From TrEMBL:
Keyword terms, alphabetized: Heme, Iron, Metal-binding, Monooxygenase, Oxidoreductase
Family matches, as PROSITE patterns: CYTOCHROME_P450 (PS00086)
UniProt cofactor(s): heme
This protein's name: Cytochrome P450 monooxygenase
Domain of life according to the entry: Eukaryota
Pfam short name (any one): p450
Residues that coordinate or bind heme: C267
Species: Fusarium sarcochroum
Family: Belongs to the cytochrome P450 family.
Length: 324
């Protein structure tokens, strides 16, 4: 998006530069800042009509005040990234990234965006899909550890296409692996990172949904968490069964699979999320062994997203000598 790495892994911490509107630069913890605004809104209410007032009033409570303070750090991080990338652009640096596309068309004609629009777009670039993909990856690893037979089948599939010394699985090698994709889809079905459905609006004349008339211009939504537990579509819906997404039956289920929503307003990051999940999961499952504490149960906090609690996992290298 911005042709820049934050370098968190290289530095071993998540402190990054942030910037106040006056130009003062300071450090903020990215992970603490990333999600508190949406989390706070989820706790208070979902309508924007009253949120501005409730947001201010709720700050008298330390629990909510901490979220507001952390959210300011995120605003500063985004502002700093926007400022640095804009400076590179103004110096004439041409880069093949989303920012370049924001600033001008393919012919080089400027779009003349206002500064506030630029910052808002960079906020989306840095925020959208980051938390949800991380949640999805933690969920699938957890499900595989609870279901060792599925883990074994996935490893067999991965070992058949990946070399022992491959640290990062090449996407071209794993993008069409059926069991890998089935594991991803089954985990996304069972625990969609965003439990509530993206909203839609009924047409002005209203609409009849499941036999119930809904007036026009009404916001409607269906929870993927609920829809994916329909036993008539997903038998044994509470169980992790990747095989349900294999073959022709699996293709039929895709019309009922709404983790990324559906239709023209579905998640535009669907394909890149699958790419990230496939490469990351294939890489770690092929290369490492994992173990959870006996009796461990993953905790989930339902906000706008399903925020996960700590997951203490023991990790060690697999012995891949037999593959060589």
């Amino acid at each position: 998006g911005l042709s820049e790495k934050l370098g968190l892994l290289d530095r071993g911490h998540d402190r990054v530069e942030a910037q106040e509107t006056c130009g003062t630069v300071y450090e903020a913890n990215l992970r603490e800042c990333l999600y508190p605004t949406a989390r706070k809104q989820s706790y208070l209410l979902w309508t924007y009509d009253h949120y501005k007032l409730l947001n201010k009033v709720s700050n008298v409570i330390p629990f909510y005040r901490k979220m507001s303070e952390a959210a300011k750090g995120w605003d500063g991080i985004v502002l700093r990234r926007a400022q640095l990338r804009l400076e590179r652009y103004q110096k004439g640096e041409k880069l093949d990234d989303f920012f370049q596309a924001l600033m001008e068309d393919k012919s080089g004609h400027p779009h003349n965006l206002e500064w506030g629009e630029i910052v808002a777009e960079i906020n989306i670039m840095m925020n959208a899909g980051s938390v949800t993909t991380a949640i999805a990856l933690a969920n699938i690893l957890y499900q595989l550890l609870l279901n060792p037979a599925a883990m074994q089948l996935l490893r067999q599939e991965l070992d058949s296409v990946l070399d022992p010394d491959e640290v990062v699985a090449p996407y071209d090698k794993v993008k069409h692996l059926p069991y890998l994709r089935a594991c991803l889809d089954e985990s996304l079905r069972l625990w969609p990172p965003t439990p509530q459905g993206l909203g839609r609006q009924t047409p002005p004349e209203g609409s009849t949904i499941m036999g119930q008339y809904i007036p026009g211009n009404t916001s409607v939504s269906v929870s993927a968490l609920v829809a994916h537990r329909d036993e008539s579509i997903y038998p044994e819906a509470e169980k992790f069964i990747p095989e349900r997404f294999l073959g022709d039956k699996g293709k039929e289920l895709q019309s009922h699979f709404i983790t990324f929503s559906a239709g023209a307003r579905g998640c535009i990051g669907r394909n890149i999320s699958y790419l990230e999940q496939a490469v990351c999961l294939a890489s770690v499952v092929h290369r490492y062994e994992f173990a959870l504490p006996v009796g461990f149960e993953l905790k989930r906090e339902e906000t706008m997203n399903h925020i996960l609690g700590p997951m203490p996992v023991k990790v060690w290298r697999r012995d891949l000598g037999e593959q060589e």
